[in-house]
Amino acid sequence: STLFQSVELAPRDPILGLNEQFNADTRAHKVNLGVGVYYDDNGKIPLLSAVHQAEVARVEAAAARGYLPIEGIAGYNKGAQELVLGKNSPLVAAGRVLTMQALGGTGALKIGADFIKQLVPGAKVAISNPSWENHRALFERAGFEVINYPYYDPATHGLDFQGMLNALRALPAKSVVVLHACCHNPTGVDLTNEQWREVAKVIKDTNLIPFLDIAYQGFGDGLEQDASAVRLFAELDMTMFISSSFSKSFSLYGERVGALTIVTGSQDESNRVLSQVKRVIRTNYSNPPTHGGTIVSTVLNTPKLFALWDQELAGMRERIRLMRRQLVEKLAQNGVKEDFSFVMKQRGMFSYSGLTAAQVDRLRDEHAIYAVSSGRICVAALNSHNIDVVAKAMANVMK
Ligand code: PMP
């Protein structure tokens, strides 16, 4: 018998499985709305101009590729920190904030999880119901018990706010609460600032550990606006974890660009926490890669490139909004009686469309349109060439 004889086949990732099925589909008019990626109006992943310019400059500089510090590029970390906490954060001035370059938002969550495991080994981790697929798996893998708090209410296509608050209030102190700071994945349903204020207060009063995951900053209402939940927690003077992902906002999925920010209670705590988190990084992958980090750092720290990036990000955001509006209009034009205006209230790349699993099956089998069985569609995969076909097919399966 070999070492691997008893290894069981792991279940395959449902979304990657969907992509494989899509790729194997030979129907020419097929559309994949199951993805988690922003596509432009031609159905392509864009290379942003700001990114391209930073990349050209980097190649021309013919820079050597030595090791980065364990915590990554200083300018990158400062840029990432300012995006979430703002340029004039008193917490930063007080030395209470540390930011470390990470391997995407996933890497930031994982470093944070490993550090919390060391700090509060028995903590429960609460994630929204539903949440990004990997939240549960990642925290379980880090050794935590993961539970759900109510979030999405299918009856209203909105938020189960009371359910959420009640569940948070009932958590034991020092439980970790994972929150989507904007553009909730998979539902597109976000909290209002008023609701954020109440949630933050409950988290503070119950002595919970907020872990704000921000993977779509700039896709909701704008870079500054989308950070308002983080800023609110900061104003309440709370210690917290923030995982940032630049995968979507820079369209740099494969470069693994993200950051972990930790707000501590004092400069002295910061020094000690940094030393421990560096140990977590060192024993995982030693230090982050240079290329993507340099590109993001250049864009964040060059005012002309930052302005260009902000503008390109606005272009992506507005195109998604347009697709939301057109989908709602075209569903009505195709005779759908139900009110789909909730799609326009949702934020970010995704929409919980309200389609049932059976309707999703019919979309795929009869119309070559692929969506997640939960009914999640990626609005950023809609474009002027496929939206008529999609709206017509959705109307058809809803009859
Ligand atoms: N958090 C959420 C909510 C996400 O949707 C994603 C990516 N889809 C991530 C984190 C991870 O981002 P990255 O690809 O940068 O690891």
Account of the protein in words:
The protein is an alpha/beta fold. It is built from 15 helices and 13 strands. It has helices at residues 14-24, 49-61, 74-85, 90-93, 104-119, 133-141, 161-169, 193-205, 228-235, 267-282, 291-301, 303-333, 342-345, 357-367, 387-398, and strands at residues 31-32, 97-103, 124-129, 145-150, 152-153, 158-159, 176-180, 209-214, 240-245, 257-263, 350-352, 369-370, 376-378. Strand 7, helix 8 (193-205) and strand 8 form a beta-alpha-beta unit. The longest helix is centred in the C-terminal third of the chain and has 31 residues, at 303-333. The termini are far apart. Bound molecules: 4'-deoxy-4'-aminopyridoxal-5'-phosphate (PMP).
Average of per-residue pLDDT values: 97
Distance between the termini: 56 Å
Inertia-based shape: globular
What ligands can be seen in this structure? Answer: 4'-deoxy-4'-aminopyridoxal-5'-phosphate
SS summary, helix count: 15
* Multimeric state: single chain
The amount of beta strand, in percent, is 5-15%
